[in-house]
Write a structure and sequence with these properties.
heterodimer, A: alpha/beta, 5 helices, B: alpha/beta, three-stranded antiparallel sheet, about 25% helix, globular
Chain lengths: ~220, ~220
């Protein structure tokens, strides 16, 4: 199983029927592929849609039915559309149950940096700051390291996305939670030892007394 | 409301004007107006919108033609030309969290003196802004935004100017229609009065100054 699949499958297990869920671009988008079909999860696209469905069949794309990346999507029966003020009212107002976002760095208190690398990449924060500030639960989906460097750091060196700590980080090696504001290893990926996770992680990790293996 | 030709509509916009433009990655952007602004070469524009789309699409066309002096947007990541012009100092870009941007526009159009939001606290976004405590919670005070023109893309416009929108092409459009001093609308379909049911009108006719004639 490749890194992205491990991450997406594990995060899909966090979703429950009836939840309103916002998936970011990249690995987070893949989470929808692993949600069991009997779960009724409402997926929001922050450009103004609840009920986002899978990609349209070839030739069936509609120019005004798109996701937050501007790509064609479908709408499931029961979908609804709204303007950007309503969309961000849903997000900032605490009506979104789970947001899944990508990350550049998460530090050992759970603070996230995911919107710019000064001097290199300045895409803008888009909706990320509102999502991290306002969603009930924030899950970060990212690879454990980039170019050999741990993305789970002692302290973020990149500009923060929010002063609010995230709730869960899922990588291809581990699941990390933040009880009492401290990064805590709670699961390892199949075949990965606690020592291997510690080796790959810059942040100081608390080891849960019952570290489990991800059930994929 | 007055019906106007595309050429006349854009002729009203002076160089240096501030424009709110509907659309999200080009979806729901009045492409006909954008194309005509580029054709007439209106310069030194301030564009307030969600994003600068991508080269060849929506607001991206104005960026490519180097007509934008300042962009007030939430995202430029899919338009490398915006980033290049920003780095080269040819264009200034003010990045604003998307939820804050739309609320600042809403505040401008709704007669509010600003909004209080927790978004941006503890980040570079809070620099230079007032923090206000409400019942023990801290918020940033964000000022209202208005513009000389709002350029709106609707799905339906009736002969009075009532508007309805389509799917994800709605996005910023109904909000900017409240916040532009002059509101110019392009509609996919111009229909008789009564065809849009009162409950389905999203933007009330008195807000609309001009509808660009189809054809």
């Amino acid at each position: 199983m490749d890194a992205q699949t491990i991450i997406a499958k594990r995060i899909a297990q966090e979703l429950r029927s009836g939840m309103l869920v916002n998936l970011g671009i990249g690995i987070p988008t893949l989470v929808a592929n692993y949600v069991p079909s009997d779960l009724r999860v409402f997926f929001q696209s922050e450009n103004g849609l609840i009920g986002t469905g899978p990609l349209p069949e070839e030739g069936m794309a509609h120019p005004t039915l798109t996701d937050a990346g501007g790509r064609p999507v479908t709408a499931l029966p029961g979908a609804c559309t709204f303007d950007s003020a309503t969309s961000f009212g849903l997000i900032r107002g605490g009506h979104v149950d789970v947001t899944v976002l990508g990350g550049l760095q998460v530090d050992q208190q759970g603070l996230l940096a995911n919107w710019m690398i000064p001097g290199k990449m300045v895409p803008g924060m888009g909706g990320a700051m509102d999502l991290v500030t306002g969603a009930k639960r924030v899950i970060v989906a990212m690879q454990h390291s980039a170019k050999g460097k741990s993305k789970i750091v002692r302290q973020c060196t990149l500009p923060l996305t929010s002063a609010r700590a995230v709730d869960l980080v899922v990588t291809e090696l581990a699941v990390i939670a933040f009880p009492a504001g401290r990064a805590t290893l709670i699961e390892t990926a199949p075949g990965v030892s606690v020592a291997q996770v510690l080796e790959a992680t810059e942040a100081e990790l608390v080891i849960s007394p019952q570290v489990q293996e991800m059930q994929l | 409301m007055k019906v106007i030709s595309l050429d006349e509509a854009v002729s009203m916009i002076p160089n240096g004007a501030s424009l709110m433009i509907g659309g999200f990655m080009g979806v729901g952007t009045p492409e006909r107006l954008v194309d005509e602004i580029a054709r007439q070469g209106k310069r030194d524009l301030t564009v307030i919108a969600n994003d600068t789309a991508k080269p060849g699409t929506g607001i991206g066309k104005l960026v490519s033609a180097k007509l934008v002096r300042k962009a007030i947007v939430s995202h430029i990541g899919l338009n490398p030309e915006t980033q290049q012009q920003m780095i080269a100092g040819e264009m200034s870009v003010e990045l604003i969290p998307q939820g804050t941007l739309i609320e600042r526009i809403r505040a401008g159009g709704y007669g509010l003196g600003g909004i209080l939001t927790p978004t941006g606290l503890g980040t570079v976004v809070e620099e230079g802004k007032r923090k206000i405590d409400v019942d023990g919670r801290e918020y940033l005070l964000e000022a209202p935004l208005r513009a000389d023109f709002a350029l709106v893309q609707a799905f339906l416009a009736d002969y009075l100017g009532n508007l309805a929108y389509a799917l994800t092409a709605r996005n910023f459009n109904p909000v900017i229609a409240m916040a532009g001093a002059t509101v110019i609308v392009v509609a996919d379909h111009i229909v008789p009065v009564g065809l849009i049911a009162p409950d389905h009108v999203v933007t009330p006719a008195p807000l609309v100054d001009y509808i660009v004639a189809n054809g």
